[in-house]
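[Discussion] Sanity-checking designs against the backbone

I'm trying to build intuition for which residues belong where. Below is a structure token string of 383 positions. I'd appreciate it if someone posts a full sequence so I can compare it with mine line by line.
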């Protein structure tokens, strides 16, 4: 192996190492991007736009890894989390199934640009060691140098006209003679369109393969979470955080505010005044997913839903839809000692499998429509 190849490859990451990091791991897309074709720059920031969804639709299984000079290409499938009905205080070690939601014969493709490893440009030494001087030595020789240049009587060799010389054939400069920016441009230009970085303007260069490897690992950590790590948990909406806090404590949800009362301790119970039809989604419908997930809801003195926590999740992004619908609902507040007070309700939202004639994204019923017990929708349960 040539010395230049050793310098370029030492400390670099291999395809085998990437497979060990990604294949077979429980991964989530941190930002919940839903497109099946995603490109990220070398820092792990999305290039372009993609709709975002619940983390329960963001589980990713990587099956194939390919690494080239300018990018990493990952191919696999997206999975949805279907919860199996456990409450927070019950065993959650097997609380959900991972269900493939990427259609057969299709795949999720993710690319991440790479920082490019270049060869350092060599400093060209001045021609003639006698002319390469500095400081006092240069001052001492300067007058002699200029005296020789200004001499009026040329030597015999200088008096003769210069003989023409054959022009040397032009050759492409060696990488060591090119600037790092020029090496990057030349490398991208010599690469096929498919293998070029998705965002060439953001690509940086380094002479250290180890540095390029660390940049790539940082980008992978920006794009993926291995399980629900601390950063992933911190990014979840409050209704999920409250659920997982209860899971960690192996206890049922309790409101943050101790002043929140229960329905059986007030003079007049809170009541739901409106009904609504929360959205299902294409993933739930394609997998025939239906259910009635309960949510714990604090109804404030103003008759609006305040704090909400997932009670028994259903997954597939439906819990988010349920919370959105609950926030739009209107309630009559609970009354104690003649004053409205905050109270805790359990609200259940019903998701059904729609017929082919029914649009998945049908408009919900208006939130100000009077509630009718015979219609499906959320209902309050004394607690």
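Best answer:
Here's mine. Compare freely.
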């Amino acid at each position: 192996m040539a010395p230049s190849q050793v310098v370029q490859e030492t400390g670099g990451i291999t395809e085998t190492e990437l497979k060990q990091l990604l294949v077979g791991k429980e991964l989530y897309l941190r930002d919940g991007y839903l497109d099946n074709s995603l490109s990220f720059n070398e820092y792990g920031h999305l290039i372009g736009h993609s709709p975002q969804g619940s983390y329960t639709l963001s589980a990713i299984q990587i099956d194939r890894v390919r690494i080239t000079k300018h990018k990493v290409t990952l191919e696999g499938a997206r999975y949805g989390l279907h919860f199996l009905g456990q409450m927070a205080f019950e065993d959650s070690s097997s609380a959900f199934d991972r269900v493939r939601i990427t259609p057969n014969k299709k795949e999720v493709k993710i690319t991440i640009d790479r920082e490019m490893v270049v060869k350092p440009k060599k400093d060209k030494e001045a021609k003639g060691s006698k002319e390469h001087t500095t400081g006092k030595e240069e001052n001492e020789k300067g007058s002699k140098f200029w005296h020789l240049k200004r001499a009026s009587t040329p030597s015999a060799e200088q008096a003769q006209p210069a003989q023409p010389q054959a022009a040397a054939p032009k050759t492409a400069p060696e990488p060591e003679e090119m600037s790092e920016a020029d090496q990057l441009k030349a490398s991208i230009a010599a690469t096929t369109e498919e293998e070029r970085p998705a965002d060439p303007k953001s690509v940086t260069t380094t002479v250290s393969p180890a540095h390029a490897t660390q940049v790539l690992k940082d980008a992978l950590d920006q794009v993926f979470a291995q399980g629900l790590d601390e950063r992933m948990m911190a990014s979840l909406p409050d209704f999920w955080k409250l659920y997982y806090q209860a899971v960690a404590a192996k206890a049922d949800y309790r409101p943050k505010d101790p002043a929140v009362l229960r329905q059986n301790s007030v003079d007049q119970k809170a009541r739901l005044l409106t009904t609504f039809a929360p959205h299902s989604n294409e993933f739930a419908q394609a997998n025939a997913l239906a259910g009635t997930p309960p949510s714990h809801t604090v109804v404030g003195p103003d008759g609006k839903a305040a704090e909400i926590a997932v009670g028994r999740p259903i997954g597939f992004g439906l819990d988010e839809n349920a919370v959105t619908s609950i926030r739009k609902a209107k309630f009559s507040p609970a009354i104690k000692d003649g004053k409205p007070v905050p109270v805790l309700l359990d609200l259940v939202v019903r998701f059904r499998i729609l017929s082919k004639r029914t649009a998945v994204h049908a408009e919900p019923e208006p939130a100000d429509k009077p509630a009718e017990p015979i219609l499906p929708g959320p209902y309050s349960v004394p607690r």
